[in-house]
Amino acid sequence: MFLLVGVLLAPSAASAQSKPVTVKTELVTIALTETVDGLFYFDGKTAQPFTANLTGIGQPFEYEGPQRFVVRANAAEFSAPPPLPPPAASVLLPLRCSRVLLACIKPPDKALRIAAYDISTKDRAGDYRFFNFSDRPLSLILDGRKLALAPGKDASLTSTKWRDAVLDLPVQVAAVEKDKPKLVYSSVWGHRPGRRNFVFMFKGSHPSKPVTFCRFFDIPPAVKAE
User: Fold this and answer.
1) CB atoms within 10 A of CB 90
2) How far apart are the first and last CA of the chain?
3) Count of CB atoms situated within 10 Å of the CB of 24
4) How far apart are CA 104 and CA 69, in angstroms?
5) Report field, pTM of the whole predicted structure over 0.70
6) Residue 116 in contact with residue 72, Cβ under 8 Å?
7) CA distances from 137 to 140, 185, 197, 209 (A)
8) Sheet containing 154-157: which strands, arranged edge to edge?
9) DSSP character for 72?
């Protein structure tokens, strides 16, 4: 009896497991190495242009579709029968987010790579979120706030005084070389309240400049009332 029930339930369980997860969120894009254009994504109804710019984070756009976000070079591929050619890039979107940042990286002579980050409400206006895209651990001090990041990791710094005031924030970055920290960057950043700051750190192109920075900002999404 119990065996029969288990056998009868098995197909529906397998069916539920194979059903793709659907995501409904806002997406924003940024290009970190070169402008991205000439690509398309599927918004659940039609193929739409997918772009990312070097100059700043793009305007948010609504997305409702599979958790696996796919971009293709040919819009017709979204309605073509299988087998389909490989996509230009794809990324698994985080779940239960109101806004996701798609960071587009296109190394020379390599395929486009997209990294997806939840930027819903974790980071508030005035906060700084750092992303370590370099090949070494980095330690930094921003206006007295300290942070250590392993390669491929990201984390945020926050301060109540960053919320409302125009400030000059001293920043220092050290890279670990031969198991010892070495100061590789020291500057002062102008700070403006009302926006969230995203700082991407990369391996530099010269020994005298071992770390390079890409700094962007956005306006936090409004918190929806329950």
Assistant:
1) 16
2) 46
3) 12
4) 13
5) yes
6) no
7) 10, 14, 21, 16
8) 154-157, 128-132, 196-206, 209-218
9) B
Count the neighbouring beta carbons within 10 Å of the beta carbon of residue 27: 21
Indicate the length of the chain as a whole number: 226
Give the DSSP letter of residue 116: E
**Tens of pLDDT along 73-129?**
999 999 999 999 999 999 999 999 999 999 999 888 889 999 999 998 788 999 999
Q: State which amino acid sits at residue 102.
A: L
CATH code for the part of the protein at 128-218:
2.60.40
| Token pair belonging to 40 | 């398309």
Q: Give the H or E element holding residue 63.
A: strand 61-66
The CATH 2.60.40 portion of the chain extends over 128-218
Note the pLDDT tens digit of each residue in 17-69. Answer: 567 788 999 999 999 999 999 999 998 889 999 999 999 999 999 999 999 99
Residue pointed to by tokens 């970055």: 173
Instruction: Give strand pairing partners of 40.
Output: 49, 72
Rounded Cα–Cα distance for residues 223 and 40 (Å)? 29
Provide DSSP, 127-186.
-EEEEE-SSS-EEEEETTEEEEE-TT-EEEE--GGGTT--EEEEEEEEEEETTEEEEEEE
- Cis before residue 83, ω within 30 degrees of 0? yes
Question: Residue 161: phi, psi to the nearest 5?
Answer: -75, -15
